[in-house]
Specification:
This protein is 36% helix and 41% strand. By secondary structure, it is an alpha+beta fold. The chain has a single domain, classed as Translation Initiation Factor IF3 (2-Layer Sandwich). A hairpin with a 2-residue loop joins strand 3 and strand 4.
């Protein structure tokens, strides 16, 4: 599966637009890591617990989007974007979305 964040595949022609595909997840860290992150916020620096959480969530959302595109028979997903929103303290939703297409 080809996945790009531009509206074309270099060197390939789009035969058919299948439509919007998306994948999402809501992730939170367990209370121990949440407390640790809170302390780190007081002293400054990267909050690695949340960096890890969001990286994992992006991978899950991207994988789910690709799975949906494959179910629809797509060869590629173009214009891929990510969106993040806070759901509650210490938890975030990651949404990956793009346009599923068939290539010539």
């Amino acid at each position: 599966m080809i996945v790009v964040n531009i509206d074309y595949i270099p060197g390939r022609e789009i035969k058919e637009v299948i439509g919007l595909v998306r994948g999402n997840t809501i992730q939170a860290k367990h209370i121990g890591k949440d407390i640790k992150a809170g302390f780190r916020q007081l002293v400054g620096g990267e909050i690695k617990e949340y960096t890890e959480m969001l990286s994992e969530a992006r991978e899950i959302a991207l994988r789910r989007m690709i799975e949906k595109a494959e179910e629809l028979g797509a060869d590629a997903v173009i214009n891929v974007r990510f969106m993040t929103s806070a759901v509650m303290s210490g938890a975030a939703e990651i949404l990956a979305y793009g346009t599923a297409v068939k290539l010539k």
